[in-house]
Every structure is written in structure tokens, then in C-alpha cells.
């Protein structure tokens, strides 16, 4: 028999097997076609054509994407994890209360301080659990007034928003008026004074709550470092300020409880890890890797040290 025919037949059999496995998952509603298309970076129309056999180009690359997706799914399912997800630490509770205050009282709150204490995770959790909460993250490329407003417009669902700052401000204001919502700006230390002032005016005109979150530079920017007249006008509108400058011991113990890490040695090591740059973020990454190493068993000091060493290696 021709080897080419044998190879072709094996490839077709593999394609068929992959499609059958994936179709079984979509038909069982384990995952939707639209979500699957997103996870393998193809359009829903392309995925539909692959399933129906009407894809006109060579489907090999698409089948390979699906095969890789199946393989990664199997690896995740075969990797036991005790990851508890979001943990409501003492710091997270304080930040949550601050955001609730901002939304209920239609006020501006500033949360600032050290990196890796759980600020961003808490912001996302609050957004997941509350209506009319919109969160954008500032960055060097999204720090100008126009870019910040446009990012907020997209978060508000205004996909056809104009790119001129005056018109942008108007459509955003119209969207927010009467919403009783909360706008969260993470990494707000990237924003300059004109952008902060525009956000202040937007908050006052619409009656929403607003939370500005970032490092210590946020507080310095809002005070102007000198409290001149312009910055004083902005600073005086801030109803509440929360400075978080280091990881709390209580936070580490709350995370240890959630991950079911009970040993004194293990908890002591967790505290040491949390005191390094990155704080709870580094601790979370270490615990996730340790859980993979433990393969469903308890997370021991030895496993924790192995995971930490693996993350810190610099070969």
C-alpha cells in the first residue's frame, strides 16, 4: 500500500477523533462555541465551518488548534488543585468597604500603597459581585485624557464612542447620569493632573462613586506635593483615603486557612515569602505552583520551598 495513502488516512482519522471529542463537549454545554472560538483564537464563523465540514481552506491548522486545546484541558483536569480563588483577607475587606462607601455615598475614594497587597484582585472581585461597576486600568499608553476617557467609554459598552475628548466626555457623562454606579481607575498613578481633574468633574456631574487606586504616587499627585490651589480643589473632593503600605500578617493567615495550610513551619515560610517584593502576589503564585507539585496532597514546607525556588530561579 502507498505510504502516502496510509499517512493521509491516519491524519483524517486523527482529525475526525479531535472533532468528535470537541463536538461532544460543546453539545454537552461544557463550553459554548463562542467561548471555544475565543480560546483558540479563531472566529465563531470559522469554527462553525470546521464543525460542518464547509471550511474551504486546509483545516489542518484549525484541527491542530483544537487538538492543543483538548490537550491543555486534559492537563488542567489531571492537575488537582486546592486553589480557593479569591480570599477575603482583612485588607480586602477594608478595600471592599471603601468601594461600597464610594458607590453608596457617590464619593471619591483613593486607595494607595504597596504593590502586591491584593488591591487589584479585590477590585475585580467587587466588580464581579456588584451591578454598574466599571473598571479600567491606566497605563503609559492610556494615560492621556483622551485615551483614558476612550478606555472608560469601551468599558461602558460605548464601542462606537468618538475619539475627540470633548465628545467623549459628553457621551460618557450621558451614560453615567442616574446609574448609581462606581467607576474604578486602577494604576491611577499613571494619570496626569488634567486627566484627574476631568475625572473629578465627571464624578461631580454624574453623581457616581469613583475609586482611584495605585501606588504612593497617586497620593502625591493628588496633593501636588505642595497643596497649591489647583491641587487643593481636587484634593478637597476626596472623601476617604486608604493607605496600605505592607502585607498584614492576618492576610497571610487568612490565605493559609483558605489553602488549608496548617503547619507552623509552612505558615512561617508563607509569611517570609509575603515580605518579599510582590507580597501576596508572589505568595499566590508560589501556592499555585506548590499545589501542582503536591498533586492533590497537602502543601508541605518542602513543596513550598521547591515552588518558591522554581519561581525565583534565574538561570
Structure description:
With 315 residues, the chain is of the alpha/beta class. Helices cover 59% and strands 9% of the residues. The chain has 15 helices and five strands. Strands 2-3-4-1-5 form a five-stranded parallel beta sheet, sandwiched between helices. Helix 1 (3-27) crosses helix 4 (60-77) and helix 12 crosses helix 13. The longest helix is centred in the first third of the chain and has 25 residues, at 3-27. The protein is flat, with a radius of gyration of 25 Å.
Key descriptive features of the protein:
315 residues; alpha/beta; five-stranded parallel sheet; 5 strands
Strand order of the largest sheet: 2-3-4-1-5
**Poorly predicted regions:** 1-8
Structural class: alpha/beta
Percent range of helical residues: 55-70%
CA-based gyration radius: 25 Å
Quote the distance from N terminus to C terminus.
Answer: 50 Å
Number of H- or I-type helical stretches = 15
Strand residues, percent: 5-15%
Run of helices and strands: HHHHHEHEHHEHEHHEHHHH
| Main sheet overview | 5 strands, parallel
Overall mean pLDDT stands at 88
Task: Please give the number of β-strands.
Answer: 5
Overall 3D geometry? flat
Amino acid at each position: 500500500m502507498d505510504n502516502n495513502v496510509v499517512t493521509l488516512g491516519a491524519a483524517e482519522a486523527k482529525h475526525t477523533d479531535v472533532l468528535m471529542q470537541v463536538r461532544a463537549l460543546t453539545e454537552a454545554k461544557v463550553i459554548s462555541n463562542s467561548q471555544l472560538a475565543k480560546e483558540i483564537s479563531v472566529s465563531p464563523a470559522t469554527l462553525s465551518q470546521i464543525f460542518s465540514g464547509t471550511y474551504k481552506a486546509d483545516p489542518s491548522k484549525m484541527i491542530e488548534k483544537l487538538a492543543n486545546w483538548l490537550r491543555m484541558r486534559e492537563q488542567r483536569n489531571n492537575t488537582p488543585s486546592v486553589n480557593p480563588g479569591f480570599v477575603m483577607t482583612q485588607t480586602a475587606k477594608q478595600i471592599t468597604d471603601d468601594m461600597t462607601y464610594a458607590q453608596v455615598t457617590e464619593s471619591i475614594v483613593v486607595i494607595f500603597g504597596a504593590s502586591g497587597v491584593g488591591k487589584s484582585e479585590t477590585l475585580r472581585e467587587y466588580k464581579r459581585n456588584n451591578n454598574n461597576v466599571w473598571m479600567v486600568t491606566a497605563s503609559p499608553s492610556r494615560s492621556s485624557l483622551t485615551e483614558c476617557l476612550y478606555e472608560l467609554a469601551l468599558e461602558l459598552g460605548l464601542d462606537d464612542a468618538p475619539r475627540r475628548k470633548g465628545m467623549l466626555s459628553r457621551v460618557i457623562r450621558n451614560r453615567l447620569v442616574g446609574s448609581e454606579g462606581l467607576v474604578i481607575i486602577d494604576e491611577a498613578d499613571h494619570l496626569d493632573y488634567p486627566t484627574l481633574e476631568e475625572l473629578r468633574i465627571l464624578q461631580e456631574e454624574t453623581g457616581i462613586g469613583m475609586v482611584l487606586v495605585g501606588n504612593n504616587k497617586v497620593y502625591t499627585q493628588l496633593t501636588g506635593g505642595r497643596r497649591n490651589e489647583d491641587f487643593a480643589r481636587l484634593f478637597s473632593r476626596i472623601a476617604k483615603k486608604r493607605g496600605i503600605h505592607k502585607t498584614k500578617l492576618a492576610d497571610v493567615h487568612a490565605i493559609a486557612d483558605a489553602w488549608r495550610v496548617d503547619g507552623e513551619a509552612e505558615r512561617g515560610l508563607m509569611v517570609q515569602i509575603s515580605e518579599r517584593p510582590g507580597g501576596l502576589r508572589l505568595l499566590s503564585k508560589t501556592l499555585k505552583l506548590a499545589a501542582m507539585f503536591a498533586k492533590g496532597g497537602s502543601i508541605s514546607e518542602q513543596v513550598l520551598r521547591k515552588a518558591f525556588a522554581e519561581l525565583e530561579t534565574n538561570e
